[in-house]
């Protein structure tokens, strides 16, 4: 039996142990929480997307192949592998075909020989008036604010969270939520938060401005600023550069092809357009209008013609007439992955009988969010996409899709569409984009 003194000693020891554990716990918790000294005003507001330079063009030498990238399944937001490409798709090529039936043909009617008519007077077509193209240098200044309008809420709340005093677990969770809401994707959001947290702790950051500067740095890093973003649209060895513009219908393929032609013409280049989207007559018509406004030739087939044949003719004519670049607008309205694979694969193979393909630009509509990502994945499997054009960034608050697309495809976003105007196409610059995001 223990006497009362022993019980007292044991009691004191137990109390002391509990006290030590409590103190250690409190110290650890304080260490995980980061206190920011300054919490007042947000960083001086920047305005808009202000990429400084012009378009960066280069020769490709027919190297339209991208390094394959591994994308862990865990990174993917949906993994069924069978996305529906092109919702208003035409009848798929593998649909049931009609069988042959015998029909009686009417007897041919013998027409009397036509009376010779006087030669028609050929009126000279009036020279079309060419558009004035906005200078490519510094055009970003004009597009200032296009992106900022829809994106700054995202930036403001992120910066607000970083400047709102102590950064505890809840704050980090809120920061990650903000990134998720802007469509950065779970994997990228977790990486950004992890990296920012490490930097803040390792650098002993205690003031909000410094933390915000680190956020900017981490976001830019996540966009891989070292990726090669020049558009391979310059002739190589006396042969035109060949660019295929691919993507689902409605994403802005034709518009982007037209806008890019304007950029090249403004740079003093000669351009030939190939209207290989033969599913819709209006698409060729639309491209012809873009071409006529800048004096670019166009090669088109009749509606329903084989897109590969039109692409072949376009590149052949481009080689013969020695233009600097041939831009081929392709069709993307195919129901099945196999159909798409057949079609685009054939276009590329056939074109390469004339000249190597320098650039395959995948056009994605930023407003479609995850759907755009699914398309990116399918096209990435079908052709070697070498660059992404993200259109309609002026119409969405979800610019974060840029991060996911690059991660998914492992290819750079090269151009962004920031409006419906003919010159609302801009080169993608990570730092300028992040500045616009942060507002
Ligand atoms: N706001 C905005 N609209 C854009 C942008 N790019 C394209 N559009 C619009 O998107 C619509 C579809 O563009 P198209 O170029 O016809 O798309 P497409 O992919 O060629 O479609 P199909 O010809 O049907 O295959 C048009 O009304 C364009 O004006 C952009 O960057 N911003």
How would you describe what is shown here?
Keywords: Cell membrane, Cytoplasm, GTP-binding, Hydrolase, Membrane, Nucleotide-binding, Receptor, Transmembrane, Transmembrane helix. It is found in: Cell membrane; Cytoplasm. One of its GO terms (biological process) is SRP-dependent cotranslational protein targeting to membrane. Among the domains are: 57-66 and 228-431, P-loop containing nucleotide triphosphate hydrolases (Rossmann fold); 143-222, SRP54, nucleotide-binding domain (Four Helix Bundle (Hemerythrin (Met), subunit A), Up-down Bundle), CATH 1.20.120. α10 (337-351) crosses α11 and α11 packs parallel to α12. Helix content is 42%, strand content 11%. The protein has helices at 4-32, 139-143, 146-162, 169-181, 186-202, 208-222, 253-266, 281-294, 307-320, 337-351, 370-382, 401-409, 430-438, and strands spanning 57-59, 231-234, 241-246, 271-275, 297-300, 325-329, 359-365, 387-391, 413-417, 425-427. The N and C termini lie far apart (74 Å). By secondary structure, the protein is of the alpha/beta class. The strands form 2 sheets. An 8-stranded mixed β-sheet has the order 5-4-6-3-7-8-9-10, with helices on both faces. A two-stranded parallel ribbon has the order 1-2. The chain binds guanosine-5'-triphosphate (GTP). Guanosine-5'-triphosphate binds next to α7.
């Amino acid at each position: 039996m223990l006497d009362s003194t022993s019980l007292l000693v044991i009691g004191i020891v137990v109390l002391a142990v509990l006290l030590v554990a409590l103190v250690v716990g409190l110290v650890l918790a304080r260490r995980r929480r980061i206190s920011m000294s300054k919490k007042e005003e947000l960083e001086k507001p920047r305005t808009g997307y202000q990429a400084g330079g012009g378009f960066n063009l280069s020769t490709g030498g027919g190297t339209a192949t991208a390094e394959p990238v591994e994308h862990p399944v865990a990174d993917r937001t949906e993994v069924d592998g069978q996305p529906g490409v092109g919702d208003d798709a035409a009848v798929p090529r593998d649909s049931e075909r009609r069988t042959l039936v015998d029909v009686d043909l009417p007897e041919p009617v013998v027409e009397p020989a036509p009376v010779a008519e006087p030669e028609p007077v050929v009126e000279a077509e009036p020279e079309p008036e060419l558009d004035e193209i906005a200078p490519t240098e510094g055009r970003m200044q004009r597009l200032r604010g296009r992106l900022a309008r829809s994106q700054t809420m995202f930036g403001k709340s992120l910066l607000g969270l970083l400047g709102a005093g102590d950064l505890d677990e809840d704050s980090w969770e809120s920061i990650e939520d903000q990134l998720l809401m802007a469509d950065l994707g779970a994997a990228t959001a977790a990486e950004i938060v992890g990296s920012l947290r490490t930097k803040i702790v390792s650098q002993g950051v205690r003031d909000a401005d410094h933390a915000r500067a680190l956020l900017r740095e981490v976001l830019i890093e996540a966009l891989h600023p070292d990726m090669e973003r020049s558009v391979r649209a310059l002739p190589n060895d006396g042969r035109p550069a060949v660019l295929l513009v691919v993507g689902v219908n409605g994403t802005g393929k034709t518009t982007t092809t037209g806008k890019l032609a304007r950029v090249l013409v403004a740079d003093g280049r000669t351009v030939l357009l190939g209207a290989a989207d033969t599913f819709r007559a209006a698409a060729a018509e639309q491209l012809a209008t873009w071409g006529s406004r800048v004096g670019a030739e166009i090669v088109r087939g009749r509606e329903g013609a084989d897109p590969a044949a039109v692409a072949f003719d376009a590149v052949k004519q481009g080689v013969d007439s020695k233009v600097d670049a041939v831009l081929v607008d392709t069709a993307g309205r195919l129901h099945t992955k196999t159909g798409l694979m057949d079609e685009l694969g054939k276009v590329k193979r056939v074109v390469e009988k004339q000249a190597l393909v320098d650039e395959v630009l995948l056009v994605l509509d930023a407003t479609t969010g995850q759907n755009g990502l699914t398309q990116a994945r399918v096209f990435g499997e079908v052709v070697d996409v070498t660059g992404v054009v993200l259109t309609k960034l002026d119409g969405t608050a979800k610019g974060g899709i840029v991060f996911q697309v690059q991660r998914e495809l492992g290819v750079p976003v090269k151009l962004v569409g920031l409006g419906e105007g003919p010159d609302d196409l801009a080169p993608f610059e990570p730092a300028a984009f992040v500045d616009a995001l942060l507002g």
